[in-house]
Design brief:
The protein has one helix and seven strands; from the N terminus they run βββββββα. The protein has one helix spanning about 65-80; strands spanning about 1-5, 10-15, 25-30, 35, 45-50, 55, 65. Strands 1, 2, 3, 5 and 6 form a five-stranded antiparallel beta sheet that branches. The two termini are about 25 Å apart.
């Protein structure tokens, strides 16, 4: 999941896992949370696992989350940074 595109070829991706987590930061995603595409099983976005990466390492997109779900992830990142 890419949260933001920076100037140049940099992106800020966020980890997604299908593992069920007891992580208080995790944001669950399921079939209804996608604008396009789908994941095979319910998953969790991990907003406490963000990093920067070059655009060249992203091979392709398999889906796009709805705007409202992306905003939920961003708000969780903001909450983490404000702690």
């Amino acid at each position: 999941m890419v949260i933001a595109e920076l100037v140049g070829d940099a992106l800020i991706p966020c980890q997604i896992t299908s593992q069920q987590l007891k992580d208080r930061y995790a944001v669950s995603i399921d079939k209804g949370d996608f604008e396009t595409g789908i994941l095979r099983q319910g998953s969790n976005v991990r907003p406490n696992r963000i990093f920067t990466a070059g655009r060249h390492i992203i091979m392709y997109a398999i889906s796009h989350l709805k705007y409202s779900k992306v905003n939920e992830v961003i708000q969780r990142i903001v909450d983490i940074l404000q702690q």
